Fold this sequence. Notes:
By secondary structure, chain A is mainly alpha-helical. Helices cover 68% and strands 6% of the residues of chain A. Chain A is built from five helices and two strands.
Amino acid sequence: MKPSIIxxxxxxxxxxxxxxxxxxxxxxxxxxxxxxxxGGLIGATGFILYAIACxxxxxxxxxxxxxxxxxxxxxxxxxxxxxxxxxxxxxxxTGQWLFFGGSExxxxxxxxxxxxxxxxxxxxxxxxxxxIVFALEDEVE
Amino acid sequence: xxxxxxxPILIPFCTAIPAFFAGGNAQLSARISLAGSAIGLVAxxxxxxxxxxxxxxxxxxxxxxxxxxITLVADMLSAIMxxxxxxxxxAVAIYALGEIxxxxxxxxxxxxxxxxLAGVTGAFLTGDLFNLxxxxxxxxxxxxGLLIMGGRAEQIDGAVKxxxxxxxxxxxxxxxxxxxxxxxGTLNMADLxxxxxxxxxxxxxxxxxxxxxxxxxxxxAVFPLFFxxxxxxxxxxxxVSAVFAGLLTKVGVYALIRSFTLxxxxxxxxxxxxxxxxxxxxxxxxxxxxxxQSDFRKVLSFHIISQIGYxxxxxxLMTPLALVGSVFYLVxxxxxxxxxxxxxxxxxxxxxxSNLYKIxxxxxxxxxxxALFLIPAFSLAGFPPLSGFWAKYILVKASLDTQAWxxxxxxxxxxxxxxxxxxxxxxxxxxxxxxxEITPEPPxxxxxxxxxxxxxxxxxxxxxxxxxxxxxxxxxAETASAQLLDPSAYIAAVLGEPxxxxx
Lengths: 141, 503
């Protein structure tokens, strides 16, 4: 079945928006509703839409890496984020913070393992959702 | 303390990553998985020793105090289950050395296997109801990946039934979690124990508890919610189905035991009566279903269901002795059932099939396998002096003590029918001649059989050991049962109140 031209044209715009929105959700999730899980799902939605419009093979090419690699890479990232607390004597997953340029009364630019963990979750969710979708897509074809 | 609790979960996760990236090299990947499982067993044993010496231990992940953060708790039951999970994981990792081919390895078999182990261990250790849900999801995703690996039509068919019915269970579970949180404002199990008992609307609590009962009932495959199990367990590779058979349904039973001893205990007249009927019907339907099957693994799958009935029976009676029986039965059954599935794998390799009517002649060709089959088979049926005898004996005695004559009789009759099915497998696969008049022999494709035999012998030895020296295992089960019936130590360990004050 040839995909509709409207769908293909709209997909090009929507994929960009969905991916941007997914990153926004990941970022927003730090203090407000959102986070890596929902962000990863939205990001996966973008690629799933692309797969519906242009086929699984084109999507694999656009993704450049196998989705399983994204998922396992994300798992590794999250594990590292959790393990960083070990040398500091804290419990697993305790957030560790680094404030760049911080001084008296000025917080500076914060970097934390919490964000690293969330980025890992983002990749795990996106990678595993996409690998399931690709597997089912191959089955249909 | 908290690192001790998280390590049995972390080690399989950390093993999964190198095992996945080494997936192209099947031998390397399998060895990474094996090494990870061995280290995991050490971590589980260390945790077990701590719990044995110090009683219940709890830890707060990421440093948020209970009941707000994620709590991991290990009481005796959790510790026993973590150790037995690690033992099964190690045996199956050994077995996988001889079964998993390059293709499955590249698709990520070993990584998914380790993630599954992490999910099971996490479910046993968590002290938070929503966290339990997350571990169920981890198990579901990993087991779905393992089920469809290979992509044969019957595998997809089994996997779809498995996932569809498990998703129903998930939805009920999460609805129950939502309702419970709305009513009590907490999901920490220790905190819930107090909050549910003090809640003014006990009818609502019973209603919510029934949602959980159905959700966990699907997971543990009790009557009438077991249909996904025999539809899917005979399709994946044997190493996979052994883990499923040994561990997955037991997580459901564990969740039932945990929630109906710690959280929902206010109205046992309703909840535990339902459980008692469920237990009886589960035993009977499972064993009758098995009698009608002709596939090696399908017979065994129906027997899982029937045996689940025994474990639920112990919970339903809710006496100290009955819970001892449940815990003992859990441990015994995980070892025995995983072993039987592994033996089915060797038999399929030697005879080229798993339909009992189309294979045969194993007794002459592989006497060692025949002897090894008898150990778990007789243990399953409850022959002394094997582990299954003690497990059944305790449960029947507990039923008689509470004058539940009917259920005690059912348990005994079901045991008799179990012998019938085991005899059928023995007669068809081992005793009779191969219908094609060929002698089963090791395959010519060069796959080594020794890893498979090593795993089977390892588990068989454990069964014999538990059977011959049941006393130390009974004492552990008694400790676990006492902690389940009096959760004050559990609650004190989590919420940090001094034990004296809680008593």
